[in-house]
Amino acid sequence: MKHVDIYTDGACSGNPGPGGWGAILRYGDVEKEISGGEDMTTNNRMELLGAISALSMLKEPCHVTLYSDSRYLVDSVTKGWLFSWEKLGFAKKGKAVPNTDLWKQILTAIRTHQVDFVWVKGHADNPYNNRCDELAVSQWKRIKGL
Predict the structure, then answer these.
(1) Is 10 an annotated catalytic residue?
(2) Most buried of the four, 5, 50, 108, 125, by CB within 10 Å?
(3) Selected catalytic residue, list 10, 20, 22, 37
(4) How far apart are CA 85 and CA 77, in angstroms?
(5) DSSP track, 11-63
(6) Is the peptide bond before 18 cis (omega within 30 degrees of 0)?
(7) 6-55: per-residue pLDDT in tens?
(8) Residue closest to 58 by CA, chosen among 12, 120, 10, 4
(9) Is 47 assigned a catalytic role?
(10) Strand, helix or coil at 108?
(11) SS3 label, residue 94
(12) Using CA atoms, how far apart are residues 41 and 61, in angstroms rounded to an integer?
């Protein structure tokens, strides 16, 4: 099974507001940057979309180490919250879990690939995370016309 490192980040100008996501996929010596954005969204949605978009680029099942500065993303998977939400029909304390549509896509991806989620400190010393932040910010700036 191929091993791929993925770095992701999301950003939003206002919450909700214009947002962007960025991701870098690394396989051996090959790196690919991808990014996108939405006109009216939230930071959490952009964090999830960065991961989903990167994982969707993989053409076959892979072992993935996915690095993110989003505790929302990493903790929801590594602490088992996502799987509890699924068992409860994506409800928590009688309310719908936010971003259920995206969480279902994350579940599909992690059932296709072997994904290890790793939290990294944002805006710190990880050059890949910092580059993903630049990609994400450039997308919301593009949407805002800046």
Answers:
(1) yes
(2) 50
(3) 10
(4) 11
(5) EESSSSEEEEEEEEEEETTEEEEEEEEEEEE-HHHHHHHHHHHHHHT-SS--E
(6) no
(7) 999 999 999 999 999 999 999 999 999 999 999 999 999 999 999 999 99
(8) 4
(9) yes
(10) helix
(11) coil
(12) 30
Q: Are 26 and 5 in contact (CB under 8 A)?
A: yes
Catalytic site includes residue 133: yes
Spatial separation of the C-alpha atoms in residues 103 and 80, rounded to whole Å = 12
pTM for the full predicted model = 0.96
Active site residue 63: no
Side chain identity at 9, as an amino acid letter? D
Phi, psi torsion values for 140, nearest 5 degrees: -70, -30
Strands 91-92 and 95-96, bridge-based pairing: antiparallel
Question: Which pair of structure tokens corresponds to residue 38?
Answer: 């939405």
The string of pLDDT tens digits covering residues 92-135 is 888 999 999 999 999 999 999 999 999 999 888 899 999 999 99
